[in-house]
Design brief:
Order of helices and strands: HHEEHEHEHEEEHEHHEHEHEH
Shape: globular
Number of helices: 11
Strand content: 15-25%
Structural class: alpha/beta
Radius of gyration: 20 Å
Strand order of the largest sheet: 8-7-9-10-11
CATH architecture of the largest domain: 3-Layer(aba) Sandwich
Length: about 250
């Protein structure tokens, strides 16, 4: 028994807290210590989404052990930025589903889609697909229906306009683009829902690794556009999930 659990039980036995308070405290204080990681097993209770494993910078062994700790408590495991070599090691120990394009892996049951409606993930070009798929797979792992609208950049505007009905059916749109980053502004002028813009590091020299697209999106003339960091498909999907499930909190 850890010290925090002991304190909660003592408070309950002395009548200082109710049974409901004790249950809440125990649910929100569960941590599994692995030495190199403190696995937050209570994050789903607090935030509605379990802890997500960021694979870059971790060894395959570390990822596998963290994932095993989460899976052993019945949590769906989402791993981002995990290369194929690490994925192969994790797959030896857990039933891993892995997408090499986005470098996203999942373990456990994916929840049935809920929320206000679908999340649309639109990307400007095929080169933006790794970031777009990171967003799409993350949103699906959190329990959202995803519409994929790929290669709909503004240079061939008719490709985007052909998917206008899909765009307008979405509760929130993730718009992924590199180069000059114009796609979110165009989409923002066509729809009434929130648009989350994701600049990518795709482009030639003066794209500055995505900085040009980032600045373009931050200066968007479309009022409903917000922006996440360069190549951050995961962050966009997390925010889109929260927006798509706001009704449940009202």
């Amino acid at each position: 028994m850890n010290e925090e659990t002991k304190k909660v039980l003592e408070a309950l036995s002395e009548g200082r807290i109710t049974v409901e308070d004790a249950m809440t405290r125990l649910e929100t204080s569960r941590v599994e210590a692995l030495g190199y990681a403190q696995v937050d097993l209570a994050r789903q209770t607090r935030q509605g989404v379990a802890e997500v494993i960021y694979g870059a910078g971790k060894t395959g062994e570390q990822i596998a052990c963290i994932a095993e700790a989460m899976a052993s408590h019945g949590q769906t495991v989402l791993i981002t930025r995990m290369d194929e070599a690490k994925a192969a090691l994790v797959a030896e120990r857990l039933p891993l589903r892995y997408d090499p394009l986005s470098r996203v892996g999942t373990v456990g049951e994916i929840p049935e889609p809920t929320g206000l409606g679908p999340i649309a993930v639109a990307c400007a070009g095929t080169s933006d697909l790794p970031v777009a798929e990171e967003a799409a797979l993350t949103a699906e792992a959190f329990g959202n229906r995803v519409l994929r609208l790929y290669d709909v950049g503004v240079v061939g505007l008719e490709r985007l306009l052909r998917r206008l009905d899909d765009l307008r059916s979405a509760s929130v749109i993730i718009a992924v683009a590199g180069m000059n980053g114009a796609l979110p502004t165009v989409i923002g002028g066509l729809v009434a829902c929130p648009v989350i813009a994701v600049p990518t590091s795709v482009g030639y020299g003066t794209s500055f690794g995505g900085v040009t697209a980032l600045l373009s999106m931050l200066n968007s003339a479309a009022s409903g556009v917000t922006v996440v960091n360069i190549d951050n498909g995961f962050g966009a999907a997390y925010s889109a999930h929260l927006i798509n499930h706001m009704e449940a909190k009202v």
